Amino acid sequence: MTIATRLDVSVFGAFAIVGPDGSEIVIPNRRARMLLGMLCLAPEEDLDRDHLSKLLWPGRFEAQARASLRQCLLDLNKLLEAAQCDVIEVDRRRVSLKAGCVQSDLGNLELALAEARWAEAAQLLAAIGSKPILDQADFGDSFEEWLRQRREAIEHRLQTRVSAGLAALKSSSKLEDHNRLLDAWMMRHPASSRVIMAGRHSGKTRIAVLPFASQDDQNDQEYFADGIVDELITAMGRVPQLLVAGRTSSFQFRNTALTLPQIADQLHVTYLIEGSVQRRGSDVRMNVRLIDGQTGFESWCFSYDGTEDDLFASRKQLTRQLTKELCAALDLDIAEPDIRQMTTNKEAYGLYLQGRALTRRAIGDGVLDTAIRLLEQALALEPEFAECWTALAEAHVYRAVYTPCFDKQAEAQRMAVCAAKAIELAPHQGHAYAMLGLYQWTQHDVVGALDLAFKAYELEPENPAVTIRLGSFLLYCGRTAQALPYIEAAIDQDPVDGRNYGFLCTAHLNLGNCEAAIAAGQRMADLGQPSLHLAAASRAAGDHDLAVEQYQKTRLLMNSVIFPPAGTTPMSFEAMDAYWLLAARGIHSGQDEDRQRYCQTLDFLHATLPDPYDPTIVWPAIWMGYSEMVFKTLGAQITPPNMVGLMSLWADLEPIRQTRIHPDFMDFATRIGLVAAWQKYGWPDLLPAPGTGPANAQ
What is the pLDDT of residue 635? Predict the structure, then answer.
């Protein structure tokens, strides 16, 4: 008989076996399959035959159970012999594996960790993801308890080795390997993501750069001072010892009445940097101060006097000097910061700063149109200005999302062209990769979208805009447990960006954490964002009346952060109130007649609106479980604003789950590229991979 020198098995997820010739060995009998799986969890240990018979045949008489085990072993050995494998040893009391004949994914991972092969360990962990050990195993309470203990012991062993590896990598300053291993571990243990993220940032000094006060006689609307702040945020963000608060949150505190310690508390930082820029004619004076976030006292200051031309020409050197001196004031020994000179064209730089400032404001009549015009003027002057191409890409996607835009697909196409140009000129721009990923969604290329999002995160892991994009893409795919750490990391760094709490609310709702979902949704509403997701969480908690009230309240944000569909005529206040009440009841009252009435309204909107794929149709269809409309809209055209609705497909709640259990769902998922993404990156939390579900158990 040929002895198998390597039988490859997978113990994470559904147990699977590959023979020496590379072909899968199918074991139809689920108890025989599980017996081999139990042996593979600890291949160096023997298992007691009496104990095995009681675990796998509970409720039978001892003699019957032992006879069943004996027959099971005979059948298993015959099947393995047919595959030219001889891996099991049996005597009257024990069952074990022959030494060196089985290699498992668990064994490979533990060996990589033990031998400090960190890159390989991270790759193996990422492939395993959140798959449970010996999934789909159910043989009664005794077996469940045995498996629980084994799982806990293995996870504890892995955690100990991963923690030791992270400590070793951190002490040797191998931060890239450290973060890659940490990210892979977070995929497996999202429930401990807050602790993990604290571990990621332990030893890092948390700091925020506040918008500088502008004292200017040129009425430039503060863009000149904001440009200095942006360059400082970018430079300090590249210092491994620092965690810099996101720009979106920092700039919320322009002209605030809060004290500096109060701002530091809201931004979760230890130190603040504030400053001022005075321009009088061509002369510039800049003052920068480092503030203790707890006391509000100044601990360091810096001044610059010169001309505007001098400041522009020397801003790279000045930013490097500022960063080094700030870090010295914080007792941080840093390497020379890598700072890219964006452009040498002063006029193009000024137009870029103005255009980007308007893009980030986003809301207001003509704001984004003006931003795009200014950015295009900058690029006409300096066509190789990579950061400006990225800013223009962002402006186009914002126009698709935040304005009543007629052709959202055209805006997505323009965004993709700009992002691709930015990457061509400066391949390090992670944000451009993330936006290009948005375009891949509109092309039903979800694999491409995720590839780009992971690439973006690899390039800019400390950029919250990049981190939230990766988290949201995973959320759209139904991989909520994997998405949650990224979403929480982005919020941890950018805690006053209200939009991100919608992702957090939905992630918790998908995982069944109603209280956490309500808290996230309420935080979103408190920060001035629509309470649509809060209403969904309240309904999940069983409070239909409150959900209706919260959804209807969103009407107050019409024309500010919510916009009517393109091409619709303005509604009177009375008509708007009636419409929002109809929508709120249809989605959240729990009454079938209300739901049917609003489904009919969506049918009308889909037939009459210039954009039949508008989020005002797509999102309610998902929340109401109106499967046919979901397939008719998202199945035909995904756009930057309507794709957000995908994340709500993955709540295991009525009536949302009706779409997921619809017989046409898998055809829909295949058509829009989800199935291809699942095959590469792992199946959704709520959908087992083909061949591993309960229906396949023997």
Answer: 96
Find tokens 């402006």 and name the residue.
395
CA-CA distance, 625 to 619, in Å (whole number)? Answer: 10
Pick the CATH number of 205-336 from 3.90.1300.10, 3.40.50.10610, 3.40.50.300, 3.30.465.10: 3.40.50.10610
| pLDDT score of 170 | 66
CB distance 494 to 245 below 8 Å = yes
| Residue in this structure with the two tokens 């113990």, named with its chain if needed | 11
Query: Whose CA is closest to 329, among 296, 300, 357?
Result: 300
Contact 257, 222 (CB under 8 A): no
Q: What are 133-162's pLDDT values in tens digits?
A: 887 667 878 888 888 888 878 887 787 778
Q: Is residue 69 a contact partner of residue 62, using CB atoms and an 8 Å limit?
A: no
Torsion, CA 519, CA 524, CA 526, CA 529, rounded to 10? -150
CB neighbours of residue 208 within 10 Å = 28
Lowest mean pLDDT among 8-22, 60-74, 166-180, 648-662: 166-180
Q: What is the DSSP letter of 647?
A: G
Q: How far is CA 35 from CA 95, 170, 475, in A?
A: 10, 41, 35
Axis-axis angle for helices 175-188, 118-128 (nearest 10) = 20
Among residues of the chain, what percentage have pLDDT more than 70? 93
Q: Is the peptide bond between 565 and the residue preceding it cis, with omega within 30 degrees of 0? A: no
Query: Which residue in this structure is represented by tokens 């440009």?
Result: 227
Please tell me the CATH code under which domain 1-188 is placed: 1.10.10.10
Buried b or exposed e, range 456-478, using 16+ CB within 10 angstroms: bbbbbbbbbbbbbbbbbbbbbbb
Domain coordinates in residue numbering, the chain: 1-188, 205-336
Q: Where are the beta strands (DSSP E) in 60-175?
A: 88-90, 94-97, 102-104
CB 68 within 8 A of CB 30: no
CA atoms within 13 Å, Cβ hemisphere of 338? 3
Whole-prediction pTM value?
0.72
The residue-averaged pLDDT of 480-507 equals 91
Identify the DSSP state of 291. E
Locus of tokens 């291993």 = 181
Which helix (H) or strand (E) segment holds residue 274: the answer is strand 271-280
For the chain, first and last CA: distance in Å?
29
For residue 516, give both structure tokens.
């956490």
